[in-house]
Amino acid sequence: MKNYDVVILTDKDHVQPKEITVYKQNVLDEDNYVKNALEKLNLKVGRFSWDDTTFDWTTTKYVLFRSTWDYFNRYAEFSIWLNKISKQTTLLNSEKTIRWNIDKHYLLDLQKKGIHICESYFIETSEIKSLQELATDYELTEFVLKPCISGGGRHTYKINQNNILKYEAVFSELIAKEAMIIQPFQHNIVTKGEISLMVMNGKFTHAVLKIAKKGDFRVQDDFGGTVSDYSPSQIEIDFAESAIKACKELPIYARVDVFTDNNGKLAIAELELIEPELWFRNNSKAADELAKGIKLLINEE
């Protein structure tokens, strides 16, 4: 017998925070919605940090990635752990999905399957051109630079012809160690915001609208962005569900971030399949839908 049906994964900072900020309380609340939803279905649920060396991962049927928000700063360590744990229990979403989604090259796979993505240029670690040379090649006067493996706005920079020289050294240092992505600055994200559509078991459940604070372009609440409930159109819902169907395999949960690009076309900003904030506190029924999907998996065993 397993000790747990499902273990909810978090990180050390969010297991039992010493100081409860509004931000950390949101994390605790989000994970609790999932825990309660699973327990209502008579499942045995635990919650541990992904790097907890005292926990025996063979004692749980499933592990559910939720707030493992330090993985991109500890990627080498996380990758080794992921490989090990995937042989001891079942991951939700799967290791295959996680490894595919970690690297923003996945956007090219979506594009090949007919899903419209933001105009993107991938810069590999073998690149010898300067940032200015790349901007000239791609005819970009204003663009965003960010790592292919990142999260929470890490090393995300808005660059134009007035400040590009300032970022040459930063770019040179980053590209020596990791692949980067360059995308034309998307003005509608600032003026209209970015829509996050939550999808459980392949079906849309709810959405929020994220808007950057005045003077910024990053919509994350870490940088002062605001979030409000949003009622998407059927076109937006269909677009999000189509993006999920284009994945390597159907994820049990997903967040599809979309916006209207500079050409007025609906586009994927990010497809979040690892540890996205899913705003269950805005719609607790979505947590119930996720729990039902997990229960079905357990029943099928």
Q: What is the structure about, briefly put?
A:
The protein is an alpha+beta fold and 301 residues long. It has helices at 22-40, 75-85, 95-102, 106-112, 131-137, 168-175, 187-191, 234-245, 284-300; strands spanning 4-10, 45-49, 60-65, 90-92, 121-123, 142-147, 157-160, 180-184, 194-200, 203-211, 226-229, 253-260, 266-272.
Distance between the termini: 13 Å
Which residues form runs of ≥5 with pLDDT under 50? none
Structural class: alpha+beta
Number of strands: 13
Total discrete domains = 3
CATH homologous superfamily identity of the largest domain: Response regulator
Q: Helix share of residues?
A: 25-40%
- Please provide the ordered H/E string of secondary-structure elements: EHEEHEHHEHEEHEHEEEHEEH
Mean pLDDT: 93
3D architecture notes:
With 301 residues, the protein is α+β, with helices and mostly antiparallel strands. It has 3 domains: 4-93 and 284-300, Rossmann fold (3-Layer(aba) Sandwich), CATH 3.40.50; 106-117 and 188-273, D-amino Acid Aminotransferase, Chain A, domain 1 (2-Layer Sandwich); 121-185, Dna Ligase, domain 1 (2-Layer Sandwich), CATH 3.30.1490.20. Helix content is 31%, strand content 25%. The strands form 3 sheets. The protein has a 5-stranded antiparallel sheet. Strands 2-1-3-4 form a 4-stranded parallel sheet, with helices on one face. The relative contact order is 0.15.
